Amino acid sequence: MFYRQSGVHHTRYQTARRLWPLPTDQGIVWLLLALAVAAPLYLSDLYLTSYLLPWLIWSAAALSLTLLMGIAGQLHFGFAAVMAIGAYTSIHLTRAGVPFELALIGAGLMAAGIGCIFGAAALRVKGLYLVMATLAMQYLVDWTIINVPAISGGAQATLQTPDVRFLFVPLRGDAMLYYGALLWAVIVTLLVLNIKRTSFGRALVAVRDKDFAASVIGVNPFKFKLLAFFASSFLGGVSGAVLAFCYYQAVTPEQFGFNVSIQLVAMVLVGGLGSVIGAYLGAGFVLLVPIILTNLVAGAAAAGWLSVSSNLLAHIPLMVYGGLIIGFILFEPLGLAKIYDNLRKYFLVWPFRHTQS
Amino acid sequence: MADQQAAGSGGQVLVCENVSRWFGGLQALKRIDVAINQGEIFGLVGPNGSGKTTLVNAITGFYPPQEGIIRFYDSTLNGLKPYKVAMQGIARTFQNVALFKGMSVLDNILLGRHIFMRPSALASLFYWWWAQKEEIAHREKAEEIIDLLQLESVRDEPVDVIPLGMQKRVELARALCAEPKFLVLDEPMAGMNQEEKEYMVRFILDAQEALGLTVLLIEHHMDVVTAICDRVVVLNNGEKIAEGPAREAINDPAVVAAYIGKSHDAA
């Protein structure tokens, strides 16, 4: 009714290959972008800086990971280490007086370089063995950061981020920090969307789906696996730097521990492998649902509807959260993105039942 | 010596000399000699397990031969990785369809253009300035092949939901998109009904004529082989047992014996 596919005919390849070929989709995207840009006007500081801002940055990180895990099909269980490399590199570079813009690129390159070394394992092994190799990366990087004072600033140390300017604008104050995060999220989103519609993305998917068939049409599987690790680690490194500067404003090794890697994998899986909107939905789910559940349970207990011990009270949200993840994987293995997609397709041809593609 | 060969035999495209391949103790190819001329449809037949696909895999770089030389025009293919063989202008299809299931028909066919494109993440980031022109130019080429093979109706479908006959056609389209000089078809008609087979034969002939291809065809349907192949080679147990014009080679007593056994085998 309000979401029509019929009547939309593209007569040029340029418009047929647009990011959002349907006018309704374009409208939704512009609306969301306008809402995001105007967010500091209508959201309180608490919501802006403790919910929306981390959601955007973690979505960017999940997008970086979904480029590797979803599109290129290489598992990575040490992505928090990649982000840690980016965060620490950017802090040390800015402290040494390097402009912030260059420090971000340096953070990306450092993360990509080290990520590629461990990613090289992917040239030889697949699946669970690659998980082991990337886990090794997580623990090696953690250990190195904690035990080398030149990086971490000593045991149990916290490195404060210096004041920086981004393109001549001081990165200070809630609104500026939020816009920094929003800009990065938009860049990563556009990049991943564009990768999916160009030859680079097609080559990655080809290597993921059937590497022998990819090589028979001239795709070098080794090269594209490494490129996937490089691109994804670069984005992950910059995301780590943006997380440090725009959200934490300080870094400690614990912020990038193994559990963070698992959370990132959960974001990608719950959202839907290889899906851009899935990365946003997954990051939102993993970050916000535990908070909402805790508030709900605490509210119910305070109102007297739930009479349980405070010990159990702390665990109920975790139990429900775990149950929800299992439920998603059981009932919609393709993630939240697929649920969204089903809904969208339903409206696409409403009142009829079936759609093409 | 290569020059002599090429000049003497009137445009040989692909020459296999003395090609042998072992898998452990099993010799799958025994000193095979094959020469394929410019512009012909060359048939490769033989019973199951006779080494047809192994020979094709040796040519395309998946199982490099341990002995012998494979020459393509003036260059040697020995030791080249499959993606390098593809860049030389050799395209192939597979016995069991090897399409990329996560993509649409169009994206599968566009992948055939890969060797002419310059994929990079940076170009993707600046799509509107760097990549769009290239994408559209190659889309136009892909559409020509879609037109040739009549795939317009399934262009935007996910590739795993269309029927097998169509999938085989998409795989042929992907191979043709690479503008190959030499096309290897590994049982393009396996599992097809009569109508689909006739379509496929027509498309192969059309493509060969329109694009000036040389074709190596592995096929079990003898009606197809005798109808469209200029010459055939018959393999059995890794050995070449007959060679020549299709009808004669297939009626060779050694070939009949290989397929249905000799008279004294019965009992």
Describe the protein in words:
- The complex is a heterodimer of chains A (357) and B (267).
- Chain A has 357 residues and is mostly helical.
- Chain A has a single domain, classed as ABC transporter involved in vitamin B12 uptake, BtuC (Orthogonal Bundle), CATH 1.10.3470.
- Chain A is 71% helix and 2% strand.
- A two-stranded antiparallel sheet of chain A has the order 1-4. In chain A, strands 2-3 form a two-stranded antiparallel sheet.
- In chain A, strand 2 and strand 3 form a beta hairpin.
- In chain A, helix 4 runs antiparallel to helix 12, helix 9 runs antiparallel to helix 12 and helix 14 runs antiparallel to helix 15.
- The model of chain A has no long low-confidence stretch (mean pLDDT 89).
- Chain B has 267 residues and is of the alpha/beta class.
- Chain B folds into two domains: 161 residues, P-loop containing nucleotide triphosphate hydrolases (Rossmann fold, 3-Layer(aba) Sandwich), CATH 3.40.50; 76 residues, no CATH class.
- Chain B has twelve helices and ten strands.
- In chain B, the strands form two sheets. Chain B has a six-stranded mixed sheet, sandwiched between helices. Chain B has a four-stranded antiparallel sheet with strand order 2-1-4-5, sandwiched between helices.
- In chain B, helix 4 runs parallel beside helix 8.
- Chains A and B meet through helix 9, helix 10, helix 11 and helix 12 of A and helix 3, helix 4, helix 5 and helix 7 of B.
Helix/strand structural class of chain A: mainly alpha
Order of helices and strands of chain A: HHHHHHHHEEEHHHHEHHHH
Unreliably modeled segments of chain A:
none
Instruction: Provide the CATH superfamily of the largest domain in chain B.
Output: P-loop containing nucleotide triphosphate hydrolases
Strand % of chain B is 15-25%
Biggest beta-sheet profile of chain A = 2 strands, antiparallel
Quote the beta fraction of chain A.
Answer: under 5%
Could you tell me the mean pLDDT of chain A? 89
